[in-house]
Structure prediction request, 254 residues.
Amino acid sequence: MSGNRFTGRSALVTGAGTGIGRAAALALAAGGARVVVAGRSRAPLEETVALVERAGGTAVAEVADVSRAADVRGLVHAVVERFGALDVAVNNAGVFRGGPLADLAVDDWQTLLDINVTGVFLALQAEIRQMRTQPGGGAIVNVASNLGRHTQVPNAVAYAASKAAVASLTRGAALEYIADGVRINAVSPGASDTSMSLRPGETEADRAVRMKDQSPLGRVSSTQEVAAAVLYLASDEAASLVGTDLVIDGGAAL
Prediction:
């Protein structure tokens, strides 16, 4: 695969201050894209920008809350105003709230809906509206989860429901807008090398021991492995992939 397959293209990555979002931003920039990294806290976004620039890439930080329509519209406007177009969007912003369903606080449920579902809905709206006006259209990758559409585990029912909604939004939007040149797909990571996959009080070493038994692969996925899948779906090499949900979980959902 070409190392500069995104040269001349502009990208937006939400939830880019840490984890998979940061890895995706770094990978897109390494591939030649100019990247706007978005999130709710400026400090980690600036760290992502610094990492991109240290590697010779171009990135800009924008603080935004994806659950607010005006913020999301502002993100798309910022990309277009600075770089002229929005060619790639990675909707990665998400949160986890866990516990037995009957005991889950309503506020936690609402947070899952606001960020994981409404956030992707609003991002899709703003991104599609821009991309369908562009001669080259665009590519969108939503970050769902192996939990929800693919498998279930105890104490994550509400989270799984929110991510199943992301998978459904992806498939429906992909069907509606491919004729406008907007290609939409999803990745569904399992346990990855992020803080979200750590249980309360668990260390990375503890997690490594647990994953030897829980995952057929025997380990968590690296954020770079997930980012590689994101870049593939966003690239011209995946031009015929529409509404695909690529599971990256070491076989956990099999």
Remarks:
- The chain has a mean pLDDT of 96.
- The longest strand covers residues 182-189.
- DSSP finds seven helices and seven strands in the chain.
- Residues 10-248 form a domain with the Rossmann fold fold (CATH 3.40.50.720).
